[in-house]
């Protein structure tokens, strides 16, 4: 019985130790390998998917927002500047050329038409109304001065002839008519009178 107890105790201790060691190592190795593989695979798949999705979403959203805002702002400012410069330069040049051409043509035609109409109307009114009156007055004054000068010269030359002095003496009966040839009957006075007559005629 002692032997049996020793055997049993040895056997039990051996079995228990062997079973414990074997089970422990087997369970531990199996559990560790399984756990590690499961954890690695799960973590790898889960974390990879989460990381990839989050990273992709974050990157895409960030890139999209950043690129969109940057591109929009830059593109908008660049396009606005370009359009503004192009439109201003093109529109201003076209507007200036059009305005200058239109103003030049309009002013030229208006001034020409106005000047022609005004000058023609003024000239026609002047030629038809004022010029005949002016010419008539000028010719009448010229004719009257010519006739007056001619009459004066004729009267003076007639009065200074000896026949007229005799006629004057007979009419007046005075000897004052004798003084007229002494003063006015000289050749110098007659020459001055005829030269004055020629000057008034020219």
Helix content: over 70%
- The number of helical segments is 4
Q: How widely separated are the two ends? A: 193 Å
Largest sheet: none
Give helix and strand order, one letter per element, not per position. Answer: HHHH
Radius of gyration from CA coordinates: 71 Å
Shape: rod-shaped
Mean pLDDT: 77
Low-confidence segments: none
Q: Give the helix/strand class.
A: mainly alpha
How many DSSP E strands?
0
Strand content: under 5%
Q: What is this structure, in a nutshell?
A:
The protein is mainly alpha-helical. Helix content is 95%, strand content 0%. The protein is rod-shaped and about 225 Å long.
Give an overview of the whole structure.
The chain is mainly alpha-helical. It has a domain at 127-201. It has 4 helices and no strands. The mean pLDDT is 77.
Explain the layout of strands and helices.
Layout: H1 2-160, H2 162-172, H3 179-184, H4 187-201
């Amino acid at each position: 019985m002692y032997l049996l107890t020793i055997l049993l105790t040895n056997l039990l201790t051996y079995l228990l130790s062997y079973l414990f060691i074997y089970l422990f190592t087997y369970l531990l190795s199996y559990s560790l390998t399984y756990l590690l593989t499961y954890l690695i695979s799960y973590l790898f798949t889960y974390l990879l998917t989460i990381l990839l999705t989050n990273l992709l979403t974050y990157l895409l959203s960030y890139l999209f927002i950043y690129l969109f805002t940057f591109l929009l702002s830059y593109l908008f400012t660049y396009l606005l500047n370009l359009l503004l410069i192009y439109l201003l330069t093109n529109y201003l040049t076209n507007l200036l050329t059009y305005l200058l051409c239109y103003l030049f043509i309009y002013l030229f035609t208006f001034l020409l038409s106005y000047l022609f109409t005004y000058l023609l109307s003024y000239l026609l009114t002047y030629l038809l109304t004022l010029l005949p009156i002016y010419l008539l007055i000028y010719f009448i004054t010229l004719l009257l001065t010519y006739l007056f000068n001619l009459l004066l010269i004729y009267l003076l030359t007639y009065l200074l002839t000896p026949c007229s002095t005799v006629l004057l003496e007979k009419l007046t009966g005075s000897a004052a008519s004798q003084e007229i040839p002494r003063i006015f009957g000289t050749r110098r006075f007659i020459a001055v009178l005829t030269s004055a007559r020629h000057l008034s005629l020219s």
